[in-house]
Amino acid sequence: MSSQDIPEESLPAEQEHERGAVAVKEDPFADPGLPPHKPRIQDIDERAAKRSERAVAFMFTLSMLATIGFIASYVIFPVDKIVYIWPFGHVSALNFALGMTLGIALFCIGAGAVHWARTLMSDVEIADERHPIEAEPEVRAKVMADFAAGAEESGFGRRKLLRNTMFGALAMVPLSGVMLLRDLGPLPEEKLRHTLWAKGKQLINMNTNEPLRPEDIAVGSLTFAMPEGLNEHDHSFQTEIAKAALMIVRIQPDEIKDKRELAWSHDGIVAYSKICTHVGCPISLYEQQTHHVLCPCHQSTFDLSDGARVIFGPAGHALPQLRIGVNDEGFLEALGDFEEPVGPAFWERG
């Protein structure tokens, strides 16, 4: 079908026939330009601008208060507290408080920044031509001038209330991250320095759950003991036995090289912590001829005839010794707690 066969009303309106050719009246891809700028109420009414300024400052201030609430939540709510909150149901009070306060803090900063940009910063659209990647001196001067003009139009220097509250909100939000360091674990306080051993507590055989007498400990044998009153069915058993586990051996008194070890023993019976001073593994291997004990995890070796000092392996210090004696009934008893913390070193250990 030729162009002569097409009805005239079917041809595009912007086209016309001239001697068999089609002439285009308008460019279909012409730049429509920017719409005329319409001033906002804040641009012409300073009272409206002040209201927007106060609204932004309120959101920044609310962000600061939420950050304070985030920090306070760590102190106020215990980890195991469960509360009912509709419509979420039963949730952790700590997790809910942390999520709500941190969410409000971040949302208010973002909402305040958006409201500031939409109501107080200049909204005049500026078109700029493309330019080479390498900036000419004139371009750099223009960029700096535009930046200075933008800063002036934003009111950043003139509206001190906005600036100060924004700085306050941005400075306090990172404190939430600092508080998250608490999740590395609870502070040990004095719990790592003390065990259940105390003066007068009997040594209980962990295999028979019976008090130990000196005649129960044979030369060359290794016996494990725990403090009197500790029951394996207790809720805190694993926590306490991890610090109080004891190993008992009997050495001929003339084979004990360390004077304090001899003074703290009873008839050659010495009691040492069972917890390795490397990473806290339980020691369970004993060589009766050399009086050496070996940790099965990383092969740290201790000499029980010489103050349980380290003679091989990665352990950093000797095993703590427990001073023992015999009570009126003839049972072995502790004469106090360990003189130093048991197990591996920790960051606040003096």
Automatic annotation (TrEMBL):
The cross-references to InterPro entries, in alphabetical order and at most eight, read:
QcrA_N, Rieske_2Fe-2S, Rieske_2Fe-2S_sf, Rieske_Fe-S_prot
Species of the source:
Streptomyces formicae
Q: What is the protein's known function?
A: Iron-sulfur subunit of the cytochrome bc1 complex, an essential component of the respiratory electron transport chain required for ATP synthesis. The bc1 complex catalyzes the oxidation of menaquinol and the reduction of cytochrome c in the respiratory chain. The bc1 complex operates through a Q-cycle mechanism that couples electron transfer to generation of the proton gradient that drives ATP synthesis.
User: Which cellular compartments is it found in?
Assistant: Cell membrane
Q: Where is this region: Disordered?
A: 1-41
Q: Where is the composition biased (Basic and acidic residues)?
A: 14-28
Q: What is this protein called?
A: Cytochrome bc1 complex Rieske iron-sulfur subunit
Coarsely, its chief localization is: membrane
Keyword Transmembrane attached? yes
Stated family: Belongs to the Rieske iron-sulfur protein family.
Q: What are the protein's UniProt keywords?
A: 2Fe-2S, Cell membrane, Disulfide bond, Electron transport, Iron, Iron-sulfur, Membrane, Metal-binding, Oxidoreductase, Respiratory chain, Transmembrane, Transmembrane helix, Transport
**Signal peptide boundaries:** none
